[in-house]
Specification:
Blueprint (H helix, E strand, L loop, with lengths): L4 H10 L7 E4 L2 H11 L4 E5 L12 E4 L2 H11 L3 E2 L9 E2 L3 E5 L3 E12 L4 E7 L6 H7 L4 E6 L7 H10 L4 H20 L2 E12 L4 E3 L3 E4 L8 H4 L9 H8 L3 E4 L4 E5 L2 H13 L6 E4 L6 H12 L6 E8 L4 H15 L5 E7 L2 H10 L4 E3 L3 H12 L1
Parallel strand pairs: 14-16, 16-17, 17-18
Antiparallel strand pairs: 1-6, 2-3, 2-6, 4-5, 7-8, 7-10, 8-9, 10-11, 10-12, 13-15
Helix pairs in contact: 2-3, 5-6, 10-11, 11-12
Length: 386
């Protein structure tokens, strides 16, 4: 689960990490009021979307007057911001962050993430902040330093010193960095984060370190432990079909192709998409209905994939291990009748009660194309589209 910048900074400040004074606003009037409360003669107006590259896309603007704060907020709110990390449609802007400006002397990159191969938390830091860290890694890898934290020992003082020296900080700033890193590490562990990124972490003209921008990803699997974080999710930032899929405990991801897939099991779903590509087709989605699915979930899954206007054929690939193929067949029949599907539907059922499932489909009178193997199903689905 991703957080907006203003939500991330609220968490950061609770752990003692310095952030610029700021307030979220959902209207031009609120934006002006926020600027008045913050005081000063200049403010940053920042569109709140779950995507990077906002500054280059016009989503971060400086306002030199209260009137300009209002006009910039009004121009952003209700629009869709397109960045290098979004689709061509962009992400909807329903909130802006009004923030005090800062005198920046230097910019740094700092992040914490899970290094799964080592089963440790990694701190990644670079003196080249404010830039795409991938570009820095490719062109100037020497500017990136990584410290792996032993979970039994925690963050150690020598690691803080290494990072401080790598960033070229003086003794006072290294002390500040130590407090920031310990706060970040504690936040990361206590809130079960998967990514915490400050880009940039800046040194102000007064020599203070400040988290100018923040990105936080929370591990979805740990949300049952964090009731305070669940309500921070913004459904408007997700694909509408993916939001609907979560309501029925379906694992769904929208893709760009035209052959919809409904499969039980993540590995089988990946294999199904691969074989569609092998036969010259393009999958329209990843959809895992789960090992213990039932007719109702299958029906909802069917309605979900048929709501995509790009879909020209549907491939159902079910292996009945835990799940019974006759229940899957009942769900397919129900969904096809309720939605009035007008695209070819290729079905491969194999496993528990597979024969009964195939019989139900053949007796239903529906125009379902049977398949005897995965290769046969993929070939027929691709042919149906072409």
């Amino acid at each position: 689960m991703n957080l907006h910048e203003f939500q991330a900074k609220d968490l950061l400040s609770g752990y003692g990490i310095p952030v610029p004074p700021g307030r979220p606003a959902t209207s031009a009037a609120q934006a002006r009021s926020a600027a008045e409360t913050l005081g000063g003669g200049a403010w940053m107006v920042k569109a709140q979307v779950h995507a990077g590259g906002r500054g280059k896309a016009g989503g971060v603007r400086r306002a030199g007057s209260l009137g300009e704060v209002s006009s910039l907020a009004e121009a952003m709110l209700g629009t869709r911001l397109v960045t290098r990390q979004t689709t061509a449609e962009g992400q909807p802007v329903s909130t802006v962050l009004i923030e005090s400006t800062s005198e920046i002397e230097r910019e740094f990159y700092l992040s914490l993430l899970v290094e799964r191969s080592r089963r440790q938390i990694a701190i990644i830091a670079s003196a080249a902040g404010g830039m795409d860290i991938e570009e820095v890694a490719a062109t100037e890898p020497g500017k990136i330093v990584t410290e792996l934290i032993d979970p039994a020992a925690g963050l150690q003082p020598f690691q803080v010193r290494r990072i401080g020296f790598a960033l070229g900080l003086d003794p006072d700033q290294r002390k500040q960095l130590g407090a920031i890193l310990h706060g970040l590490y504690l936040l990361f562990v206590e809130k079960d984060l998967s990514l915490l990124e400050l880009n940039p972490l800046v040194k102000t003209a007064e020599g203070a370190l400040l988290a100018l921008d923040a990105k936080i990803d929370v591990d979805d699997n740990a949300l049952f432990r964090h009731r305070d974080l669940r309500g921070l999710d913004d459904p408007s930032q997700h694909d509408a079909k993916e939001v609907r899929a979560k309501q029925f405990d379906l694992n769904y991801i929208t893709l760009d192709g035209d052959i919809a897939c409904m499969v039980n099991g993540a590995g089988l779903a990946m294999g199904t998409m691969d074989i569609i590509k092998l036969y010259g087709g393009e999958p329209a989605n990843f959809l895992d209905v789960g090992g213990g699915t039932d007719a109702e979930k299958v029906s909802e899954a069917f309605k979900l994939i048929t709501s995509d206007p790009n879909v020209k054929a549907i491939l159902v690939n079910i292996f009945g291990g835990i799940v019974r193929c006759d229940l899957i067949a009942e769900g397919i029949i129900k969904a096809v009748r309720e939605t009035g599907v007008d695209v070819p539907v290729v079905v491969r059922l194999e496993g528990t009660n597979g024969e009964r499932g195939r019989a139900l489909l053949s007796e239903s009178g529906l125009a379902v194309i049977p398949a005897v193997s995965l290769a046969d199903a993929a070939e027929k689905a691709v042919a149906a589209v072409k």
